[in-house]
# Entry
Amino acid sequence: MQKRRATKRLSKTYLVTGASSGIGLAIVRCVTAEGHDVIATGRRPHASLPADYPDIAYHKLDLTETASLKRFIDQHVDGVDRALLCAGAGFYRSLAEENARDVEHIVSINLTAQIRLAHALYAKLAARQGRLGLVGSVAHKGAAAMPVYAATKAALDGFGRALALEWQDRVAVRVLHPGPTSTGMAERAGRPADWLSKLMLPPNAVAEMIIDGLEGNRGYRQTLSYGRYLPRLLLRAVR
# Structure
């Protein structure tokens, strides 16, 4: 991953959820390398983090626990310029195979927690003319064998559009939809490995595109797929 330097004058404070693995972890590494301050949350305990995890403020947090979430925001989140909400979960199974407990769990993490976080963060972000990034998925257009996951990402897209209109001129809102990314989530969700697994996007590249998308002005919704990744790869190859 190419490092982009941030001067002290331009350094910001980021809040990143889902930061113990996958895209969230890649984002934490990227913005830390740029010289920014980071407040991170994840479901893993400190002892389970990678040995080379950045030296930042990390908090083990279950985003579905309303009281814990509010306490975390009140006690540990201050002076935030950017928030990237990356936490998510899903199962690769048909609707007929789903059960009520897992459906509630996925909706709670992928949608309800994001709404609660946005609500809690609004005043803090608005005070600094900050930016909020909701990390969705290209599955928001529909994904066979992942109907519940796809539904939550579609709902997140609609929520982000509403916030982008409601918060305009106060907090910039971006819904950033990565294409399939090599984070291990597909395997954990139960998706069988096939030739498509080898074509998944690298997490570091997706993290960089998410950060750029958060700062850009391409509209509230942005798709981060090979169409965005290949020009960046070619540009690096000729440097």
In short: Residues 1-9 have pLDDT under 50 and may be disordered. The chain has seven helices and seven strands. The helical segments are 22-33, 66-76, 100-126, 147-166, 185-189, 203-215, 226-238. The CA atoms of residues 18 and 86 lie 5 Å apart.
